[in-house]
């Protein structure tokens, strides 16, 4: 029985490796990934940077959005979204397979384990990226003002300036907004 089990595992491993070798990010997936990495998604490696996977986690109240992202990245994901319940939250989470295609994004969006804004963000940011960034980490300032806020408190002032310069190229009027947790980007 152990021999049969080993054979099944080896067969599954070969199938998985064949599937992974055929994967390539589409334009939509690349643009979406840029927005998500500016927002809440994150990359992690388990083999010192040879490959990375994308981890997604959202509040259960945003499960429709999580399912939408799952659909975009479906061929990269082995296990459908799952619910994680702890004392205070119900979250929906899933992750992609580890793959070398994500290494480029890790080198752009991380300095060690710290998330950063790439110096060349102007090359990657598209209207689609901005939309997913907003869905991940944005909100309306208020119903009256109709202004939009991006929660960028984890980024430095220089990184926020870089983002504002890039957003201005989309004809968006942007500025910094001081909060006790850090800076936000405000779009009027």
Describe it for me?
The protein has 188 residues and is of the alpha+beta class. Helices cover 41% and strands 22% of the residues. The chain has helices at 2-22, 27-38, 63-72, 103-109, 121-124, 127-137, 157-168; strands at residues 42-44, 53-59, 82-85, 90-95, 110-111, 114-115, 138-140, 148-150, 174-179, 182-187. The strands form three sheets. The chain has a four-stranded antiparallel beta sheet with strand order 1-2-4-3, covered by helices on one side. It is globular. The relative contact order is 0.13. The mean pLDDT is 90.
Order of helices and strands: HHEEHEEHEEHHEEHEE
The helical percent reads: 40-55%
Coarse structural class = alpha+beta
What general outline do the C-alpha atoms trace?
A: globular
Gap between N and C termini: 66 Å
Strand content: 15-25%
Q: How many beta-strand segments?
A: 10
Strand order of the largest sheet: 1-2-4-3
The overall pLDDT average reads 90
Number of continuous helical runs: 7
Low-confidence segments, ≥5 residues, pLDDT <50?
A: none
| Main sheet characteristics | 4 strands, antiparallel
C-alpha Rg, in Å? 19 Å
Give the tags:
188 residues; alpha+beta; four-stranded antiparallel beta sheet; 7 helices
Summarize the SSE layout with pairings:
Layout (H helix, E strand, L loop, with lengths): L1 H21 L4 H12 L3 E3 L8 E7 L3 H10 L9 E4 L4 E6 L7 H7 E2 L2 E2 L5 H4 L2 H11 E3 L7 E3 L6 H12 L5 E6 L2 E6 L1
Antiparallel strand pairs: 1-2, 2-4, 3-4, 5-6, 7-8, 8-10, 9-10
Helix pairs in contact: 2-6
């Amino acid at each position: 029985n152990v021999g049969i089990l080993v054979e099944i595992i080896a067969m599954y491993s070969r199938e998985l490796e064949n599937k992974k070798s055929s994967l390539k990010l589409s334009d939509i997936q690349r643009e979406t990934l840029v927005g998500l990495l500016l927002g809440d998604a994150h990359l992690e490696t388990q083999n010192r940077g040879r490959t990375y996977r994308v981890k997604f986690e959202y509040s259960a109240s945003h499960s429709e959005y999580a399912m939408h992202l799952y659909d975009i990245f479906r061929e990269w994901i082995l296990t459908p979204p799952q619910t994680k319940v702890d004392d205070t939250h119900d979250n929906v989470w899933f992750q992609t397979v580890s793959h070398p295609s994500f290494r480029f994004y890790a080198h752009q969006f991380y300095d060690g384990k710290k998330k950063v804004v790439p110096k060349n963000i102007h090359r990657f940011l598209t209207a689609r990226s901005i939309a997913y960034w907003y869905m991940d980490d944005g909100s309306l300032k208020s119903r009256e003002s109709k202004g939009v806020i991006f929660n960028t408190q984890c980024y430095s002032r220089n990184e926020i300036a870089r983002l504002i310069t890039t957003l201005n190229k989309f004809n968006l009027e942007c500025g910094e907004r001081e909060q006790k947790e850090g800076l936000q980007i405000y779009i009027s």
